[in-house]
Amino acid sequence: QVQLVQSGAEMKKPGASVKVSCKASGYTFTGNFLHWVRQAPGLGLEWMGRINPHSGGTDYAPKFQGRVTMTTDSSISTAFMELRSLTTDDTAVYYCAREPVIAAGLDYWGQGTLVPVSS
Amino acid sequence: DIKMTQSPSSLSASVGDRVTITCQASQDISYYLNWYQQKPGKAPKLLIYDASNSETGVPSRFSGSGSGTDFTFTISGLQPEDIATYYCQQYDILPITFGPGTKVDIK
Lengths: 119, 107
Fold this sequence. Notes:
The structure holds two protein chains of two kinds.
Chain A: E1 3-6, E2 18-25, E3 34-39, E4 45-51, E5 58-60, E6 68-73, E7 78-83, E8 92-98, E9 108-109, E10 113-115
Chain B: E1 4-7, E2 10-13, E3 18-25, E4 33-38, E5 45-49, E6 53-54, E7 62-67, E8 70-76, E9 84-90, E10 97-98, E11 102-106
């Protein structure tokens, strides 16, 4: 069965960086785009971007362009999302999610990784 | 960016009621609209894709319709386990954008 398992919670200070991992299993890792979506406490869902694990190609939301890097390591079926220059506004749960081959919705999601940013 | 709006922002209904949520896009997105359910502390779950197609395993009481800029999500017979926040999401044009959500609870 398809599973996306994310790394654990990480507390960060303003100005630091965070790198969240998302390990995929149960399907061919390079066959599907992986997306990153975040959710600040009590707020809605915000799309950060996506990566094509086959080509390494990325699409980032303009809001995060220049501050986010999405990568993959196909040898371990894992995607990574690094966000730099953190502020308290980046406090959120970060999710990875798989896009099905026919690109209709995000069909499997990781459990989420909480990143509190506080001095 | 395409702006997605949802109404209402919250609603309270009785078990067995028909519940309708609307989602409007700021421009024509054809049928590239999905609906998710999110329960507290959990990741979102895809319910409806391409405006009206049910994801495998989703109960038949959940349905979606619409195209262009106006979409509707319906729960035909609210159940206690349907308490959640529901989000629409467009994927016609990047960046992907979500609606602000509709919180559904039991009266």
